[in-house]
């Protein structure tokens, strides 16, 4: 199963569970894009250098259906491709909310549609729910993994009204993630 292969790359996991649909499983948390260096003789590592924040992964067996999350920098995308690019295929939906881009765009990578959407503050889950036009009641009585399946079913055919562009041609800026909270 695909998530079994990804499990060593899970970081700050919220959940990983099977959906009620046979063979489907979901994960939410962070995904390691570039590991930290080895810290000691036992092989333990320092924290990751790059992560896909607020990651949402949905797999059906060994097939990646949905990969969404937040990149601090578009420059981290090659690291994502190194780790997960082999599983991006036609039919895979990838939505990456990216902090340091001015304008959104879509690109095709290994046959998969990848949407890059600028987002300096906000939550990936909430943004995807808005894109899919779902409401809290649409998830009533569902487990965590089934909520991800519901989101995927609602957004899988979404046509992003963004220009097509190669990732290499995208313009970046110096924006940093904005976080708010208790002082």
Q: What would a concise description of this structure say?
A:
With 183 residues, the protein is an alpha/beta fold. Helix content is 19%, strand content 32%.
Q: Could you describe the 3D structure shown?
A:
Helices cover 19% and strands 32% of the residues. With 183 residues, the protein is of the alpha/beta class. It has one domain (2-169). It has a 7-stranded mixed sheet.
Features:
7-stranded mixed β-sheet; 183 residues; 7 strands; alpha/beta
Helix content: 10-25%
- Helix-and-strand structural type: alpha/beta
Question: Per DSSP, what share of the residues sits in E-state strands of 2 or more residues?
Answer: 25-35%
Low-confidence stretches: none
How many helices? The count is: 4
Which H/E pattern describes the elements? HEEEEHEEEHH
Spatial shape: globular
Major sheet characteristics: 7 strands, mixed
Strand order of the largest sheet: 1-2-3-4-5-7-6
Radius of gyration, in angstroms, nearest whole number: 16 Å
On the 0 to 100 scale, the average pLDDT is 92
């Amino acid at each position: 199963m695909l998530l079994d292969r990804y499990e060593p790359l899970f970081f700050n996991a919220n959940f990983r569970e099977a959906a009620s649909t046979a063979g489907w499983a979901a994960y939410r948390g962070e995904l390691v894009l570039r590991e930290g260096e080895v810290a000691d003789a036992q092989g333990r590592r320092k924290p990751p250098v790059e992560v896909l924040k607020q990651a949402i992964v949905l797999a059906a067996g060994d097939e990646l259906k949905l990969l969404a999350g937040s990149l601090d920098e578009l420059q981290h995308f090659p690291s994502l491709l190194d780790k997960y690019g082999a599983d991006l295929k036609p039919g895979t939906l990838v939505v990456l909310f990216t902090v340091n881009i001015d304008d959104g765009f879509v690109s095709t990578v290994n046959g998969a549609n990848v949407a890059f959407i600028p987002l300096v503050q906000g939550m990936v889950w909430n943004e995807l729910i808005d894109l899919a036009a779902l409401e809290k009641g649409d998830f009533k009585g569902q487990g965590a993994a089934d909520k991800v399946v519901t989101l995927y079913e609602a957004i899988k055919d979404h046509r992003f009204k963004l220009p097509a562009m190669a990732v290499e041609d995208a313009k970046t800026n110096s924006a940093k993630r904005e976080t708010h909270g208790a002082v």
